[in-house]
Structure to design on (183 residues):
């Protein structure tokens, strides 16, 4: 019996002859996370963590917050290939059209991410340039199964600093979203 392709939904939504987005990829050995600032029809942040050989993905309309009091809506989207953690560029007309910037990335640690995903609740550690320390994702009850909340745990990296305003640019190219769009 053939194993189902976890990237089927991702691949069906894209024309790889037109888009510069990656079609696949392999793990670097250590699980990663990436937060991509995406100027699509509405500016949002895509939070992605490596679980089971793919990037599990959530669209976070307001972006991550370092304030533990903030619970940010995170809407689960289709899985993305691992190479997407390195994608920065402009997606042409069609699904997801707009500029994608690597706002932050690094290593991801979680004791049992697969179980946490199934249970709708997980705690993890991020080792990024902008996002560090303990975080949690939990599925909202009595709502769509796609709706989760992303929040920072109260640790040494928590605070009230608006990281989105204070550090808006790419950790890869150093450019702004506008600079990438115009390149």
């Amino acid at each position: 019996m053939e194993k189902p392709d976890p990237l089927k939904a991702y691949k069906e939504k894209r024309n790889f002859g037109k888009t510069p987005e990656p079609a696949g990829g392999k793990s670097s050995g250590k699980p990663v996370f990436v937060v991509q600032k995406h100027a699509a029809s509405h500016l949002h942040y895509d939070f992605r963590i490596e679980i089971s050989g793919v990037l599990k993905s959530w669209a976070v309309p307001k972006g991550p917050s370092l304030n533990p009091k903030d619970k940010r809506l995170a809407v689960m989207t289709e899985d993305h290939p691992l190479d997407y953690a390195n994608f920065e560029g402009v997606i042409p007309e069609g699904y997801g059209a707009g500029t994608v910037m690597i706002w932050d990335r690094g290593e991801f640690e979680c004791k049992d991410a697969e179980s946490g995903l199934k249970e709708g609740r997980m705690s993890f550690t991020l080792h990024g340039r902008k996002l560090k320390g303990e975080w949690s994702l939990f599925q909202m009850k009595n709502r769509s199964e796609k709706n989760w909340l992303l929040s920072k745990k109260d640790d040494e990296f928590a605070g009230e600093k608006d990281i989105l305003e204070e550090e808006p640019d790419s950790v890869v190219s150093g450019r702004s979203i506008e600079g990438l769009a115009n390149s």
The two ends are 46 Å apart (CA to CA).
